Amino acid sequence: MLLRKALLCFLLVVLVSFPSFSLAQSKEAETPRVRNPNLPELYLHLLRWQNHLDAVADDRAHHGRNSAWLRGYLQKQLAFTDAEFVPIRDSAHRLQMTDASLHERAKALITSDLALYRAGKLQSSDRPPNLDRVRDLEQQRNAAIAAEIQDLNSKLGPTNAARLEKFVTNSFSKNVVVKRSPVPSQRHREFGPSREALGMGATK
Predict the structure, then answer these.
(1) pLDDT tens-digit readout, 64-75
(2) Is 6 within the bounds of a domain?
(3) Which of 17, 61, 104, 201 is the most buried (most CB within 10 A)?
(4) Can you name the residues that pair with 180 across neighbouring β-strands?
(5) Can you give the chain as a three-state secondary structure string?
(6) CA-CA distance, 14 to 12, in Å (whole number)?
(7) In a domain, 43, yes or no
(8) How many degrees, rounded to 5, is the angle at CA 13 between CA 8 and CA 45?
């Protein structure tokens, strides 16, 4: 029950991709789009999940409660030894730091543009001033994820790397979808792009 609760909390707050500045006005654009995640996104969420489990485990340990089973949950699923699992935990920590930094930079740019829309200085049909900069950050993020996956696989070795990919694609993927919510046209006219629409797609 506790693990399920931790997973649900994680999936409610985890973010998949960088903001989409879609300003389309069609009904199709107002319908949230759901798709299966690609392999890099699955790895990203697996590593985020490990960070989340570690954080929950740390909190439990701080209150004198058993936390080893949470910290080692994914390790047990993969049947890795402590030594074999070290590269996964290290990758999770590094990628979390990089992703958080890029996310905050993108968030600042988006917040700046939102202020212009809401102040009436930009119309819903206007191109967001920071769009190119946000897209550049998204490319940096994708490159960071790809590089981390490559480094992780190298440190795991062929056998364990294959075992991890099989787990990610066959088991973990069942819990992850990517959902993007484009900006509704009426909300554009009234408020400018919404924080949700310009924010990340979420998993569920």
Answers:
(1) 898 889 989 999
(2) no
(3) 201
(4) 33
(5) CHHHHHHHHHHHHCECCCCCCCCCCCCHHHCCEEECCCHHHHHHHHHHHHHHHHHHHHHHHHCCCCCHHHHCHHHHHHCCCHHHHHHHHHHHHHHHHHHHHHHHHHHHHHHHHHHHHHCCCCCCCCCCCCHHHHHHHHHHHHHHHHHHHHHHHHHHHHHHHHHHHHHHHHCHHHHCCEEECCCCHHHHHHHCCCHHHHCCCECC
(6) 6
(7) yes
(8) 80
Residue 132's domain spans which residues?
A: 19-198
- The amino acid at residue 63 is H
Task: Name the token pair of 26.
Answer: 């069609």
Q: What is the pLDDT of residue 50?
A: 94
Provide the sign of the torsion angle of the four alpha carbons 12, 18, 22, 26, taken in this order. negative
41-55 tens-digit pLDDT: 999 999 999 999 999
Structural domain includes residue 145 = yes
Spatial CB neighbours of 15, under 8 Å, sequence gap ≥ 6: 103, 199, 200, 201, 202
* Number of structural domains in the chain: 1
Query: Is the separation of the CB atoms in 8 and 185 below 8 Å?
Result: no
Closest CA to 46 of 181, 141, 148: 148
Whether 65 is covered by a domain: the verdict is yes
